[in-house]
């Protein structure tokens, strides 16, 4: 597969390591009420879609960017590639 | 001799000598092993897989199922090579396979007589009982009886490379369509790769007699190839098989650089595995002719009609002087015409169609079928049933079968694309869901006439150019034959009890498919696995279509409804050597050397691989015959005076930024926010699920600067995890990370004299006294008169100890200075074994304890998990299931008899309890002989272990047979109060 890195352009998937569902960005607040239940969902529950999937890839053999790659799990088409940091910011994780 | 006196694309001026089964023969440059053997009158080339039936060539290409031979010998011995693709060279040695004592008399041909017992699924049914016999008796016998070639046990003397290529357009196959596409795209300036598995480009143009314009097909192809070779933007890859179509326009290819030479040129690889990145691809892989199943259709001399004329036209070779053709389509007649033109005797054209066309010079038997053949080691005659039912015997030496042509769709469906049935050509065509960027042209797309193939290749290239925004011009293509495909599907001759072969390599017959149908294995995927149809090394290239047509007939479904099995890479077998490339032997994976490696080699150290590092395991001294003597000495010397160990391999991560402390406070379960500058703290990282991930230390060199250490094994994973936290969880913390593992050489200096030794190295302005540099202090210092260094007062051994780091380039010098300066103290280098013994004696957890199943509580560090802050893993570590009062706790074990060995991995039970899982109380994780306590010792996890100190248990390992009574003790065997550390 070829991942079109937003900063570096097309890169072979071999340069990356894979983590999984991009929902891992949405880490709950450990000090909030109900944290135990929220963390249970966060750590264990994943969608397993046959189709578009947002997932985290780490450019380990490259610039060490974590990327959010939207990939179709049936066709391996890559629909979008973003810096995970930008996604995290957009999701209000700047605080 | 079966070599015709003229013609053929061979160099008759030169002669190559080769042997087959020890018999010497002659051939010419341009020959394959198969064509040269046929030229010498050798029709028998192999024995079949299961029944050991005599076999000759079926095809003239890579789809060959029968003529598998073993080439060369010694380390270059290569089994299961198709004689049809093996390019002849002077001195080639080939032997037949799967026959004993000889190819002509094979003892296991008895299997052929036993064929009633060896039908589909026979070993599932026959060798069911007793079950224990399978592995020891049945399987070895079956494997010996049903076999292919044998592999060499000698190392391969050749090298194999891997490479990467990029192009605008990859063209797969250099027949008429591929050449037209390459010409069109090449002239327009596109970067083109044209690959063909053959050693001569041209595809069927080299095998046919019809003209292209004023030229022969072969001459036209040669002229085009010459023009393409002159273009700098075109790369021609002959002898190169595109083995798979992968995601996003990536293709795998094997280039056989030196398979056609006795041995590779000096410094050159035997083969290259290419990874080709293409923007677009045109599949021009041609078509594969399919056989017709009739009784005993597998004798040497019976081959594909297209192959028969290929041997005559391209290699000027005929397998026999008298031949016949058995066909269901017009293309079979072409073979008869070509052979007649070369003066051969065509006994008949047996055409299954009642409306078969006539043929000048040959008798056409319309509506007839071949119903049997005879000739034990080679074809002697066939029996024909005419349309009126009369049977008739024809004496001949070769028969060409033509059941029609299958477009070679394999690569078009490597991305799960499904081929579509087409009634007009009675074959599957590539479906609409092609791999990204791929088009199909020529016979692979069902464009069977030469004219149509040329035009479709040029059209495909024009489309690619237009997609790229380039302007192309369709080349002036020569006039060529433009015949229509006329075929009436006919798959097998019915009404016989004899076996009629579908899959020649795996010995699957029409009867086997019938049996599979009777027993309920009716889907093509079940059919394949039950009968092994299409599962041989040829992947059923000539077999699958016939098999599924027979199944369709049995089920009453159409072929389209029956469907095909999946095509998967590789297209043809790939040598393991090509896949391994240079990653063999010592280069299997890279390894890393510590800064003191050269010095350690000089000391005669024994090394061990840890992660990718080579670390000194121990340093044997003269007179030491056993590793334990060395390790015990190193431990005693360190604990009584001073020892030095290279600990560079531990991961080091530099953490800087205004929020560095806050960041580490979230990474580690224990607190880091208030760590003072100049101090080090032990830290435990948890996974988000609450399980311990890694431990190490973090040293605060400045307000905004920490150095974190990780275990050797987890250095990469921890760095990745910290980057994840930094970029994904807290994207706007002001913190930067960089791995500095390789930047610093670091040595542990441990033992009561460690301070005295370091005072001789560290520049005098730095105070190393207990007050000036107490336990868990750190600082940036200089050594040896100004060399920058970092000093950490941390201890893994439990002794007064330091770790000293210098830039890596000074590491070798530093170890030599330390050894010289420490001479007066008897300084002793120690390796990873002594390091391990000392940490067990001290009760420090390591990889064996941080094993991915244990929590901080299990490790005796439950109180470290702060509930005053949010850190990774803290919330789930507090889950009820992980907070069990009676759960596993890290404790120590002493055998009741100090010389009784305790084994890591042993399980813990009450002394009277039976050794079974229900009585399991925990397990031993680390064990060693302690030269300090003069006893074997161990640490491990025991249920409610902290409440069981003093109890006696059984530590038993069913694996090794060790069974030892042990007393539960504190894991801190030495200096539990830590007085030595703080001295």
From TrEMBL, chain A:
InterPro entries: SoxD (IPR006279), SoxD_sf (IPR038561). Pfam families: SoxD. It comes from the Bacteria. This is Sarcosine oxidase subunit delta. It comes from Roseinatronobacter alkalisoli.
From TrEMBL, chain B:
Keywords: Oxidoreductase. Residues 498-582 form the SoxA A3 domain. InterPro entries: 2Fe-2S-bd_N (IPR042204), BFD-like_2Fe2S-bd_dom_sf (IPR041854), FAD/NAD-bd_sf (IPR036188), GcvT/YgfZ/DmdA (IPR028896), GcvT/YgfZ_C (IPR029043), GcvT_C (IPR013977), GCVT_N (IPR006222), Sarcosine_oxidase_asu (IPR006277). Residues 597-869 form the GCVT N-terminal domain. Residues 889-975 form the Aminomethyltransferase C-terminal domain. It comes from the Bacteria. Gene3D superfamilies: 2Fe-2S iron-sulphur cluster binding domain, sarcosine oxidase, alpha subunit, N-terminal domain, BFD-like [2Fe-2S]-binding domain, FAD/NAD(P)-binding domain, Probable tRNA modification gtpase trme, domain 1. The keyword Oxidoreductase applies. It holds the Pfam family GCV_T. Belongs to the GcvT family. This is Sarcosine oxidase subunit alpha family protein.
